[in-house]
Amino acid sequence: MVWKATPQPSELRLKNQGKLLVVSFEDGRSFDLEAEYLRVESPSAEVQGHSPMEKRTVGGKKNVAILRIEPVGNYAVKITFDDGHDTGIYAWDTFVELGSRKDEIWGAYLDALKAKGLSREA
Amino acid sequence: VKTIPGVVGAMVALTAEKKGGGMEAPVPPRPVSPAAPRPAPQAAAPRPAPHAPASHSQGKRGVPGIAAIIAVASGKGGVGKSTTSANLALALAVLGLKVGLLDADIYGPSVPKLFGLGGTRPELRDNKLVPIAKDGLSLMSIGFLVDEEAPMIWRGPMVMSAITQLLRDVAWGELDVMVVDMPPGTGDAQLTMAQNVPLSGAVIVSTPQDLALLDARRGIAMFERVSVPILGLVENMSYFICPNCGTRHDIFAHGGARKEAEKMQVPFLGEVPLEMAIRETSDGGRPIAATEPAGPHAKIYRDIATAIRDRLSLNAGPARPQLRIVVE
To answer: CA neighbours within 13 Å on the CB side: how many for B88?
Structure first.
């Protein structure tokens, strides 16, 4: 059995005053991930809950920005947002997932906002 | 506590409280000497990058002064991790490297016994513990801070905190490699190491038995999950040669680890036989690589150490560029 190698990023570039994170991988792929997107899809249990049914829809994050990115071992980074959220540990395959399925995941988020009467505006 | 019937005395072992359990708070900026022989890492988040040497993974919050940190793990207990770590560390030192050995088994520290240092207490200098120097190694273990017979009845967060302190609050100085003797399993200790430091690699120790290999497989999978390179698999207690008649007995089977390594496409580092002398010297506090450096068993450990050293330099080479974190 061969263990699938986790894609390794070559660069994380924070742009637009912390509003955009560009993640580039060693295999050449690159993803533009907005701070708002990363915030509302944070892997933290504060957002994801402990099961898919417990996932929270977080609104009002249109203007959130990333303050700090710190490495976690070899396999992830911890992102601190300017609203105080800092419990999300973003592993490399999380970035691949959020990047490659962005339209789908973002679309689902917007639908959830609408269904719950929430808004992107703070 | 004295009022509890039957209690005659109490021994209290404490660790300093650190915010957030084992997760390291951002390292405060250290004065970085511009004349440092090792180049500083390429990129920084909005705070000064930690002073760390050139090895590829060390740009990410490594321990200042330590070029490579390798974990010796197993998944299963009792396969000989501590004996292997001790002899490997000695063998690496014989190759000319500056080596430290960190005993990360908080519940069952072995390093003091393995090196015959029972009762030795480390000094404190400038708020840091000074590692014990023995046989050319720098050693640290929770076993140096408590009585040999004291059980560490601790919850996970305290274990995490202790390991982090043994790593960062010890005056390790400049080391080429730190060997970390991990406890068995895939829990708090392993996660703490994987999250708090960029491990340069992991050596997995197993006996040839299927039962042990199952756990070794899990150990390998765990490290791959957290992007720690596998330096290789060591088959311990590989075979026994009867000292009387010279017949070989494969008491725990033989060769399973090599097959497993092939199957999982990780390097196979070597076979260490079941040998009275290895066990006796371990119990006696003088590991065989130090007692009989010219002997056949020390040679086995030296060969494994050479393979590890070569693989570490490979991983650290220009072929594997560091991750850049850039803030525009």
So the answer is: 33
- pTM for the structure as a whole: 0.77
- Number of other residues whose CB lies within 10 A of the CB of residue B299: 14
Q: What pLDDT digit, counting tens, does each position of B61-117 carry?
A: 788 999 999 999 998 889 999 999 999 999 999 999 999 999 999 999 999 999 999
Distance CA A9, CA A27 (A): 8
Beta bridge partners of B240: B249, B274
Q: How many angstroms separate the CA atoms of B24 and A11, rounded?
A: 23
State CA B2 to chain mean position distance: 39
Tens-place pLDDT, residues B10-24:
766 665 554 443 333
Q: Which residues of A52-64 are buried (b: 16+ CB within 10 A; e: fewer)?
A: eeeeeebbebeeb
Q: Which is higher by pLDDT, B63 or B8?
A: B63
CA-based end-to-end distance of chain B: 57
B249 touches chain A (CB under 8 A): no
Please tell me if residue B319 touches chain A, with a CB cutoff of 8 Å: no
Dihedral class, residue B116 (left if φ above 0, else alpha if ψ from -120 to 50, else beta)? left
- List chain B residues with CB under 8 Å of A86: none
Give, in order, the Cα–Cα distances in Å from A113 to each of A30, A38, A43, B2, B297.
28, 16, 18, 59, 66
Which residue, B178, B172, B189, B196, is CA-closest to B101? B178
If pLDDT is split at 50, 70 and 90, which confidence band does A47 have? very high
A8 and B228 within 8 Å at the Cβ level: the answer is: no
Q: Which two tokens stand for residue B72?
A: 């010796």
Where residue B49 falls (left for φ over 0; alpha for ψ -120 to 50; beta otherwise) is: beta
Residues of chain A positioned with their CB less than 8 A from the CB of B225: 6, 75
Task: Say what the alpha-carbon torsion angle B98, B102, B103, B106 is, to the nearest 10 degrees.
Answer: 170
The complex's ipTM works out to 0.84
Task: Give chain A's count of helices (H) and strands (E).
Answer: 4, 6
The structure tokens listed for B117 are: 């240092």
Question: Residue B250 is which amino acid?
Answer: D
